[in-house]
Design a protein that fits this description.
Helix content is 32%, strand content 21%.
């Protein structure tokens, strides 16, 4: 399902298509040239950068990068030191 604007996706469809995420803490003053390396990673592995919603925890800004494959998310977390978040297991529906 696309979002309200042409070419945009809603949050639910992004989570479905890109279930693996890596959270990176934004350093004081921003990412700087590290952001260039993040985009270079995406180019090198042949994926389009997808960011999820960011958040603020304990006075720190967190940016979430989303991936369709676990291996790519693991490689990203390994290279940039982020926290990989696995998708929740599918819900069990009783009676089926």
């Amino acid at each position: 399902m696309s979002g309200r604007y042409k070419g945009w996706q809603d949050a639910a469809s992004i989570k479905r298509e890109f279930p693996y995420s890596v959270e990176l803490e934004v350093p004081p003053g921003g990412f700087g040239t590290r952001l260039d390396r993040v985009h270079g990673f995406h180019t090198r592995v042949g994926v389009t950068p997808r960011r999820g919603r960011g958040c603020r925890e304990g006075g720190r800004d967190i940016v979430c990068w989303r991936f369709s494959e676990a291996e790519t998310a693991q490689a990203f977390a390994g290279e940039f030191g982020g926290l990989m978040i696995l998708p929740p297991p599918p819900a069990i529906v009783e009676g089926r």
